[in-house]
Protein: TetR family transcriptional regulator
Organism: Stenotrophomonas lacuserhaii
Amino acid sequence: MKVTKAQAQANRAHIVETASALFRERGFDGVGVADLMAAAGFTHGGFYKHFGSKADLMAESASCGFANSAESLGETDGAAFLGYYLSREHRDNPGQGCTMAALCSDAARQPTSVKQAFAAGIEAQLAVSRYPAGQADSPTPEQSRARRIALMAQAVGATVLSRSCPDDSPLADEILDVCRADVLARLSGLPNV
């Protein structure tokens, strides 16, 4: 039976969503094409009808993950978002969590197309972030951007560090607790930018 163009697009979108979650959970190198297609409910042979290479899918799935994060970030208060981001719930669910915290280290060793998807995704996160400025003064746009970058880097870095420790390690929790307290202290009572 011939697949309609609309069904082919829906199938591709489903593969991308599935890949986005699996890559965040296992890393780019931890998921093979056959496993990915099986998880999406398709045969291995169908992969190349949709994608030229695994790197093409990695870039597209990263963009998908960033788009989903930007959508949820745009709907959330910055302090509430960062409080959740620096929690064990987020830390313990990489497949449902942030693309940056799950895959930045992997992306650094991937082709340029994947790095470009990450750069675009990080820019999109910065554009929609509603993190407060970090000081009571009226920062310039450059200062505001610098503060958002610093907050993002601290949150992502804390999550990565915490995930690198054993699950039952007191250090894993301490990293999240210390960074959450620091970030929220800097944000408390300040207007959003």
User: Anything to note?
Assistant: Residues 189-193 have pLDDT under 50 and may be disordered.
